[in-house]
Write a structure and sequence with these properties.
single chain, 316 residues, alpha/beta, Rossmann fold, 5-stranded mixed β-sheet, 11 helices, 34% helix, flat, binds iron/sulfur cluster
Length: 316
């Protein structure tokens, strides 16, 4: 290597060194020491966001801007399609499960069903085909749909069950495989069987979904009779909907409600309780915040449902 090329190589290496912000969801924060250490050894200056992270809708842009980071490395979620001025590198975190075991768990429950829609989270999408083959070997027809904000076929998010909706008319039931209940609460028009590879639990979601529907209906009824309404707006890049908040405020005021627009990055119900006087909240941010009605202490109605209520009140 001559002196010139050695110099240009050095320049190139120097150019790549930068200030980086790492962001992890709660379950992956344990990786922070190792990842930060690896990047620091390469010469980067590394900051780690310590705030809670709820999804790829929740990029740590304020922290990145404050420390002058030139890039965010966001772990554990797939690209959500949000446009950010600071480049974001998504690092997915696949978790291997035993597809044969999942198949053995679900097949005894599927004897009455022929056409199965498969759903899972980004951690397991890489094994969707394995499970599909297992079920097909057992004589099932397997279909996989695609959501709107999700990156992969079959992938669901708490706010995007499009992978189910897109094939709902063609299947007899759905099988969701993955950990926890959050992603299995898909309000779809066909029975949904949940198989958890970690706890080994398998069961139909009818009861949980009926509870969620009844909570939703109760919250809509509460909005219909409410006087004072807090309208929740989040500043998280993938959740912010100020336009929707202004529209619903106007619609609710037209039917006699008193509304206040409440804005925060993370919506904290403890803080909201100090306002003291709301009868209910309309949520324009992550639609799953309305799952937290108990924490809120007041009914929480999602924007679309609130608009249905407002239209209904106009007609009366
Ligand atoms: S469910 Fe909520 S937290 Fe999860 S990606 Fe969607 S908006 Fe974000």
């Amino acid at each position: 290597m001559n002196a010139f090329s050695a110099k240009s190589l050095n320049l190139r290496v120097r150019k790549e060194i930068m200030k980086i912000l790492l962001q992890f969801p709660e379950g992956l924060k344990k990786l922070a020491f190792e990842e930060a250490g690896r990047l620091e050894k390469e010469g980067h200056e590394v900051f780690v966001s310590s705030a809670e992270c709820f999804g790829a809708c929740d990029l740590a842009l304020e922290e990145a801007k404050a420390v002058g980071a030139k890039k965010i490395i966001h772990w554990g979620h797939s690209d959500f399609g949000v446009k950010s001025r600071i480049p974001v590198e998504y690092r997915e975190y696949p978790i291997q499960i035993d597809a044969e075991k999942i198949s053995a768990m679900v097949l005894p429950k599927l004897s009455k069903f022929k056409k199965i829609g498969l759903l899972t989270t980004v951690q397991h999408v890489g094994q969707l085909d394995e499970l599909r083959q297992e079920l097909e070997r057992a004589g099932k027809t397997v279909l996989v749909g695609k959501g709107v904000r999700t990156r992969y076929p079959g992938q669901v998010l708490g706010c995007d069950f499009g992978a189910a909706k897109s094939i709902e008319a063609k299947v007899d039931c759905f099988v969701y495989f993955g950990g926890g209940l959050f992603h299995a609460l898909a309000d779809v028009g066909k029975p949904l069987l949940r198989a958890d590879p970690f706890s080994g639990k398998v069961g139909w979601m009818d009861e949980e979904l009926a509870k969620a529907r009844s909570r939703r209906k109760g919250a809509m009824n509460a909005l219909a009779v409410a006087k004072k309404v807090g309208i929740l707006v989040s500043t998280k890049i993938g959740q912010k909907n100020t336009r929707g908040a202004l529209v619903i405020k106007k619609e609710l005021e037209e039917v006699g409600k008193i509304c206040l627009l409440l804005v925060a990055n993370k919506l904290e119900f403890n803080g909201l309780a100090n306002f003291g006087s709301f009868d209910c909240f309309v949520n324009t941010a992550c639609p799953r915040i309305s799952d937290d009605t108990e924490l809120a202490g007041k009914p929480v109605i999602n924007l679309q449902d609130a608009r249905v209520v407002a239209r209904m009140l106009v007609k009366k």
